[in-house]
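Example record used in the benchmark description.
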Amino acid sequence: MRVDLLAGTVYATAAMTIRPPTILVFDSGLGGLTVFAEVFRARPDARYVYAADDAGFPYGRLSEAALVARVLVVMERLIAQHAPDLVVIACNTASTLVLEPLRKRFDIPFVGTVPAIKPAAEQSRSKRVTVLATPGTVARDYTRGLIETYAAGCRVTLVGSQRLAGLAEAQLAGSPPADADLLAELEPCFIVDDGGRTDVVILGCTHYPLLLERLRPLAPWPVIWLDPAPAIARRVVQLLGEPLRSVRAHEREATAVFTDGSGLTPRLREALAIRSLLRIGIEALPLATPKV
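Model output (structure tokens):
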């Protein structure tokens, strides 16, 4: 099995240009904002499009074949409209399935997001690690292959949360979930056995760091929380190069695109503006993938 931690290692460093690159950051919803923020800091000179396929959210409700078909359809439209130089798939559920089909269809680099199994195994002292992710991500052979390859010496607990991504979206939109609801999703992550207890929790969905400041005080003991976003930003810089010194950093405005947009409340628009996403558009793409 080919294991590719950052899902972009098939590409050589892109040739430097005299213009800033256009980077498309894609997710099913708003979790990819955690990745967008890190990439934005790493390449402040770039032009950015943040695309949320909210018409398809959450992707976990789709079959694997339907998910692949959906992302290919949406990406076809986004690439035609925005001509990115690089695409970040800021969604674990999608990344575990669609990267190879995307690479076959399009001739630009794709950087994916997968659970940070290798650094978790390296940083864990108790060798008890939890992957907190969506049910789809924890069920994927890709995730299990990463565990077999990089964490064979660890006891890895897989926790598939049905609700946490939605709770993160609610938090961002100005409707913070109750502590009890968060705790119910968090409790299965913390395991004690004869040899020790969990000391690393992998945030295996890009939505979850949106809740991290809420999750930390609810944890029964301190752990390392692993967010993949910084590593993804480093990979983007490897592929596109360092920020262009000859080009002024952009006005720190970026475009957000939604495939539905019905959830764009004033509070959510404010949260996007804080993240420099001041231009908001709708590329209407209703979920019409065939039942597979």
